[in-house]
Design a protein that fits this description.
503 residues, alpha/beta, 12 strands, 39% helix, globular
Length: 503
């Protein structure tokens, strides 16, 4: 099979995990320095997590919009350089007490008032660039900015708790709110303008340094989002109250006796199809402008999706339903053409999923942390890979490698097989041997989390599924990714032929 991605290597590093003095990673100087370090390490892929505006719980997979960018990532120093903010104004905020952790409460409390000051001083409305930005994003920007303005108007409540005229988007009410909330609406447009302005500069810098950006899009959108509010007919909602009929999740498995209840509203695929999958086409076009490669999270849901009655306490009562399959992937191909796509095909095995991947050419994912619990033909063992695949040590939902391979967590027979397979004479060698196994495999791309490059324990774990409160917080400290790590990764690239022409 032909490989979709050129042989190479990359690092999974969310924007929010970059160093910065202001509580969270941004598109500022540390992001440019990270690209420089990737080049030194001969890494040609930088994978990020979803970059949409986050809601309660701070999960990038639960966003207020499938199109908008997170205002947290707008760099304050760049706004200062534009004379939209002063250093004194920035320094008046208490941003953090731990450099290795995102301070979401401080970021939420301090950042938006600062951004509002920048908005009031900006002359963007008079520029041709801003006019073109608004025109280019006409599909989603007006609805999103109105949504966020209304959200503030109604006490930051989700749209289902708004007054009926706003909830149902009654035309006379929409015109009224557009007039009354015009300044707030313009403010949210400004934030998107700055987000995309700064991101495009950063992405160009990455491209100039032969680093491709791998983006990540959740297959589902949050109930509390501009997408569901403005396109309610495309979701499985009760027409009278707009309450979800069924929601997303996954069934019980070896990891969870009750399954996972995500709570996202499910698509009405019949209505989606009648529109020619117009919403999905627009979403993929927007994503292809942001990223060089798009990873679709929970790709299994394209072929079959798990449908759970709304209000259920857990996922046990759900059932599998048929998804759009090739109809959707054909629409995606029509929308984004040659844009590269990675399919997150983990979870319940389905031959239909494998068949669709074979037909589309999308590379699937292999996870080394999943490799040693089955037989000798486990598809996640490196000797079982096919070239058109992407191998990861673990994902954002998994333990770190250092945490996962601790001896006290594994059965004796499993430890013996790990040692035999990887050629590890001692526990301290296992993480390095995992890197060698992945880099030496035929998989076209090998990607590791930054926490694993730094050999951090589970205190640095990104996310523990089905928990809220301590996830999505890890940050890299300044100088932590240095010559020792870049030199080792560069050596792996050279040793196992993961370099590309010109590098």
């Amino acid at each position: 099979m032909k490989t979709m991605l050129k042989r190479g290597a990359g690092i999974l590093m969310p924007i929010f995990s970059l160093p910065s003095p202001y509580g969270i990673g941004t598109f500022g100087s540390s992001a440019y320095e990270f690209i420089d370090l990737l080049r030194q390490a001969r890494q040609n892929y930088w994978q990020v997590l979803p970059m949409g505006p986050t809601s309660y719980g701070d999960s990038p997979y639960q966003s207020f919009s499938a199109f908008a960018g997170n205002p947290y990532f707008i760099d304050l120093d760049m706004l200062k350089e534009e004379e939209l903010l002063t250093q004194e104004e920035i320094d008046a905020c208490f941003w953090l007490d731990k450099q290795e952790e995102v301070k979401y409460d401080a970021v939420f409390y301090y950042r938006f008032p600062l951004l509002k000051k920048a908005y009031t001083r900006s002359l963007h409305k008079t520029t041709e660039a801003y006019r073109q930005f608004c025109e280019k994003n006409q599909f989603w920007l007006p609805d999103y900015s109105l949504y966020m303005a209304l959200k503030k108007h109604f006490g930051d409540n989700e749209w289902l708790a708004w007054e009926e005229d706003a909830r149902f988007r009654k035309p006379e009410a929409m015109e009224k709110y557009k007039t009354e909330l015009k300044e707030e609406i313009d403010y949210w447009k400004f934030l998107q303008y700055k987000f995309f302005e700064q991101w495009e500069k950063l992405k160009k810098y990455a491209s100039d340094n032969d680093v491709k950006i791998v983006g990540d899009i959740p297959i589902y959108v949050a109930l509390d989002s501009a997408d569901v509010w403005s396109h309610s007919e495309l979701f499985q909602l009760d027409e009278e109250g707009l309450i979800p009929l069924k929601v997303a999740g996954v069934p019980p498995d070896a990891f969870s006796d009750e399954g996972q209840l995500w709570g996202n509203p499910l698509y009405n695929w019949d209505k989606m199809e009648k529109t020619g999958f117009a919403w999905w086409k627009e979403r993929m076009k927007a994503s292809s402008a942001l990223y060089d490669v798009i990873r679709i999270d929970h790709f299994i849901g394209v072929v079959q999706y798990y449908s759970i009655p709304y209000g259920a306490e857990n996922a046990k009562s759900g059932q599998w339903e048929k998804g759009p399959g090739k109809k959707l992937t054909d629409a995606i191909s029509e929308a984004v053409g040659a844009t590269k796509i990675i399919a997150e095909d983990l979870g319940i095995f389905s031959q239909d999923v494998k068949d669709l991947l074979a037909e589309t050419g999308y590379p699937g994912m292999k996870i080394i942390e999943f490799a040693f619990s089955g037989d000798r033909f486990n598809e996640h063992l490196p000797h079982c890979y096919e070239p058109n695949s992407v191998v990861y040590g673990g994902t954002h939902d998994n333990e770190t490698l250092a945490g996962y391979f601790k001896t006290e967590k594994r059965q004796w027979w499993e430890l013996q097989y790990i040692a035999d397979y990887l050629g590890a004479a001692h526990q301290s060698e296992v993480v390095d041997k995992v890197f060698r196994a992945a880099y030496g495999s035929v998989a076209s791309v090998a990607v590791f989390q930054m926490q694993d490059v730094l050999k951090l324990d589970n205190w640095a774990r990104m996310n523990t599924p089905s928990t809220v409160g301590k996830n999505w917080r890890w940050r890299m400290k300044p100088g932590q990714f240095g010559e020792e790590q870049t030199g080792y990764l560069a050596w792996l690239v050279d040793t196992f032929g993961r370099f590309q022409e010109g590098r």
